[in-house]
């Protein structure tokens, strides 16, 4: 998949697991998010009450089927074996997960996302074959217990200024109100858990957030052309 396609998929990126879906069930939330226009879905089944075994597999397959029906890529967090077993479109791994170069060998040309927190982690992830980098937490988050320290949007500027040109997605505490500043700082999209899974109206929240991302990307491109 080329970088332009990856950048498109990163624009409105839903990260979701059953643990994040308290107001409603995961299927209802994913359906509403897809109808609102999410461009990529990551299945992240993690935390104290996370599903396991057959229940986890069933939910992964159900969400995958919803994504396939909408032509939205579906990727798995951490679990490369699961991704291969169900023929997912890719995986997302972090610095404490399986080595990125080994994962690239195992998954072939599926999408590989890698979390990075510094310029050197980013450079190494790219050398190892990452298609995109997940950067954050940009803002405080209550969705990840072992989150890295908050990085702010400055990390996105720093990566771009240091020659990291691969697709980047910001993650961590991103809301409708904050989406534009993440894109202005250099991200190609926003990856979101709670602002979507805990929204009163998931469909409308995604529509509005995606529109903010799209408008800000267009403004950024226009202002770059003027320089
Ligand atoms: C898009 C995206 N970016 C970053 C992460 C975090 O990955 P990781 O650091 O491996 O932490 P866990 O999500 O595995 O707890 C992500 N999942 N997605
Ligand atoms: C998985 C992950 N990685 C860094 S922050 C985070 C959690 C993002 O969740 P939220 O959008 O609710 O802050
Ligand atoms: Mg991980």
TrEMBL record:
Annotated binding of 2-[(2R,5Z)-2-carboxy-4-methylthiazol-5(2H)-ylidene]ethyl phosphate, by residue: 141-143, 173, 193-194
Chain residues that bind Mg(2+): 78, 97
Protein name: Thiamine-phosphate synthase
Key words, A-Z: Magnesium, Metal-binding, Thiamine biosynthesis, Transferase
Cofactor: Mg(2+)
Pathway(s) where this gene product acts: Cofactor biosynthesis; thiamine diphosphate biosynthesis; thiamine phosphate from 4-amino-2-methyl-5-diphosphomethylpyrimidine and 4-methyl-5-(2-phosphoethyl)-thiazole: step 1/1
GO terms, biological process: thiamine biosynthetic process; thiamine diphosphate biosynthetic process
Chain segments annotated as coiled-coil in the UniProt record: none
Organism encoding this protein: Fontibacillus solani
CDD domains with a match to the protein in the record: TMP_TenI
Function: Condenses 4-methyl-5-(beta-hydroxyethyl)thiazole monophosphate (THZ-P) and 2-methyl-4-amino-5-hydroxymethyl pyrimidine pyrophosphate (HMP-PP) to form thiamine monophosphate (TMP).
InterPro entries linked to this entry: Aldolase_TIM, ThiamineP_synth_sf, ThiamineP_synth_TenI, TMP_synthase
Binding residue positions for 4-amino-2-methyl-5-(diphosphooxymethyl)pyrimidine: 42-46, 77, 115, 144
Reaction(s) the record says it catalyses: 2-(2-carboxy-4-methylthiazol-5-yl)ethyl phosphate + 4-amino-2-methyl-5-(diphosphooxymethyl)pyrimidine + 2 H(+) = thiamine phosphate + CO2 + diphosphate; 4-methyl-5-(2-phosphooxyethyl)-thiazole + 4-amino-2-methyl-5-(diphosphooxymethyl)pyrimidine + H(+) = thiamine phosphate + diphosphate; 2-[(2R,5Z)-2-carboxy-4-methylthiazol-5(2H)-ylidene]ethyl phosphate + 4-amino-2-methyl-5-(diphosphooxymethyl)pyrimidine + 2 H(+) = thiamine phosphate + CO2 + diphosphate
EC number: 2.5.1.3
């Amino acid at each position: 998949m080329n970088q332009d396609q990856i950048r498109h998929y990163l624009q409105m990126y839903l990260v979701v697991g059953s643990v994040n879906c308290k107001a409603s069930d995961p299927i209802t939330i994913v359906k509403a998010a897809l109808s609102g226009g999410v461009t990529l879905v990551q299945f992240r089944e993690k935390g104290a009450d996370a599903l396991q075994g057959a229940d986890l597999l069933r939910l992964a397959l159900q969400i995958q089927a919803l994504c396939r029906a909408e032509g939205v890529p579906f990727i798995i967090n951490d679990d490369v074996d699961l991704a291969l077993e169900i023929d997912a479109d890719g995986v997302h791994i972090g610095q404490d997960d399986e080595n990125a170069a080994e994962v690239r060998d195992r998954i072939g040309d599926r999408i590989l996302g890698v979390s990075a927190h510094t310029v050197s982690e980013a450079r190494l992830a790219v050398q190892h074959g990452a298609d995109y980098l997940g950067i954050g937490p940009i803002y405080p988050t209550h969705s990840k217990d072992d989150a890295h320290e908050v990085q702010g949007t400055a990390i996105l500027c720093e990566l771009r200024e240091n020659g990291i040109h691969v697709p980047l997605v910001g993650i961590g505490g991103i809301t409708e109100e904050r989406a534009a500043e993440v894109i202005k700082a250099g991200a190609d999209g926003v990856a979101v858990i709670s602002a979507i899974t805990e929204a009163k109206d998931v469909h409308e929240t995604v529509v509005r957030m995606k529109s903010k991302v799209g408008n800000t990307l267009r403004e950024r491109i226009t202002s770059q052309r003027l320089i």
